[in-house]
Amino acid sequence: MEWSEKKEDSASASASSSWVGEGLGGYNNENVKRARLNSTLSALLDDPILADVPKKPSLSDVDTLISFELGSAMRISILKLDSTSFDVVVMNSDTVKDLKLAIIKKVNQMEQSQMGHRQISWKHVWANYCLLYHNEKLLDESVALQEFGIRNNSQVQFVPFIAARQHQKHRRRKKHRFFHGLNKLS
Question: Which of 40, 96, 110, 163 is the 20 to 30 Å CA partner of 17?
Answer without folding.
Answer: 40
